[in-house]
Amino acid sequence: MKWELSTFGKNLCEGSGIGELMDDLGEALAGGENMRMLGGGQPAHVPEMDAVWRKRMEEIVAEEGGLEKMLGNYDAPAGSEAFRCALASLFKKEFGWDVTYENFAVTMGGQTAFFFLFNALAGRFPDGRRKKILLPLLPEYIGYANQAVGEDFFEAIPAKIEKQGDHGFKYRVDFDALDPGDEITAICVSRPTNPSGNVLTDGEIERLRGIARERGIPLIIDNAYGAPFPNIIFSEVAPVWDEDMILTLSLSKIGLPGTRTGIVVASKEVCRAVSSMTSIVGLANGNVGQEIMRPLIASGEVLRLSQEVVKPFYEEKSKQAQEWISQYFGEKFPYFVHRSEGALFLWIWFEGLPITTKELYQRLKERCVLIVPGEYFFFGLPEGIDWGHTRECIRMTYTMPPKMVEEAIEIIAEEVEKAFRVQA
Ligand SMILES: Cc1ncc(COP(=O)(O)O)c(C=O)c1O
């Protein structure tokens, strides 16, 4: 049967960049085709962390009624009170923030938190006005791009590019271009940024906070890779929050993506709104991630694990991948790697690449290497802007086994060299 689709249906039922990415990831992880999967945001299986999850599951099973409670009970839509209390104590102690459990709302992964927040704040209003989310540093997370249930609602500012050394660069917020008008309803950044691994400096965050406060709109910071957990941040920055901001966290990148657990830290009002959306859309959240993590948060052990296990594991992997890049890319073609300040990716810019990165993606896929073409991360650009940079970058995840990453980098070098050579 062929049904006619609503605007919601058209936006959400007919595929998306993030959908293709997750399909590729699922196929590759299911052992699909011997793929070298450097595409998705799959965290690594860090042996120490896998051991922690196993131990926690054993404890839950051993505890009288522990398993039955976890599997057999619906949770409150805002999340378990014990989990949220543990979070409040941790954030109070660690950062001195004035929070109670009511400043936390659990969601079905960070992705769902964004779907709720963006659609509640932006889109068409009852009086006909149309409001938008401002992304102050483009490229930005592909997973936001298709979340509007109505008309598209992003307005993005292209990042300023600062080249560093022979083969490095860093994005900076272009504050000269950032002047949110009345139609902007929130400012949103991921920090560390997916895809580039950029971490906005404390100075940039303060300026964004100031602009948001002045306009009376929230600053949303997507902390999926940030502090205090999983803390995949390789530069020194201070986490900030107040009631005018909305911070999101996730249990995915510390190693529990399968539990689908996201956390919103916001004013009590915003948390109640998120909880309302959870009950309407899905009744309740999953209990498993909250139950595995609760004692680790209550004892502060999650901070030690993030700082001493997770962060060094990824920092080492990032350095190793960068070494392979200089080894295999050499001086064969122009390339710049974004400064790796956090998250799970390297973001590589092939300046002047004669083919689009969508084409490069296809050629690499034929050679069993999956990356993400950069085009997907440049959404919300003002009409009429043709920015060549959008077709010259790729995102490469470095979390997979070393042999796979090295082989993939060697193949990327061959394909990029070929593309430049044909042009010459
Ligand atoms: C920047 C960013 N935000 C949010 C998410 C959503 O993660 P999850 O829904 O697994 O919490 C991701 C996942 O890759 C991400 O990279």
Describe the structure.
The mean pLDDT is 94. Strand 8, helix 7 and strand 9 form a beta-alpha-beta unit. It is built from twelve helices and 16 strands. The chain is globular, with a radius of gyration of 21 Å. It is α/β, with parallel strands linked by helices. The chain folds into two domains: 7-49 and 305-423, Aspartate Aminotransferase, domain 1, CATH 3.90.1150; 74-303, Type I PLP-dependent aspartate aminotransferase-like (Major domain) (Aspartate Aminotransferase, domain 2). Strands 2, 3, 4, 5, 8, 9, 10 and 11 form an eight-stranded mixed β-sheet that branches. Strands 6-7-12-13-16-15 form a six-stranded mixed β-sheet. The termini are far apart. It has helices at residues 7-13, 17-29, 47-62, 66-72, 81-95, 109-121, 202-215, 268-282, 288-299, 301-329, 357-366, 402-423; strands spanning 36-37, 104-107, 123-124, 130-138, 154-158, 160-164, 168-172, 184-190, 219-222, 245-250, 262-265, 336-338, 345-349, 369-370, 372-373, 393-397. Helix 5 packs parallel to helix 9 and helix 10 packs parallel to helix 12. The chain binds pyridoxal-5'-phosphate. Residues 41, 109-111, 141, 143, 190, 194, 222, 224, 250, 252, 257, 262 line the site of pyridoxal-5'-phosphate.
Question: What would the keywords be for this entry?
Answer:
Aspartate Aminotransferase, domain 1; 424 residues; Aspartate Aminotransferase, domain 2; binds pyridoxal-5'-phosphate; 8-stranded mixed sheet; 41% helix
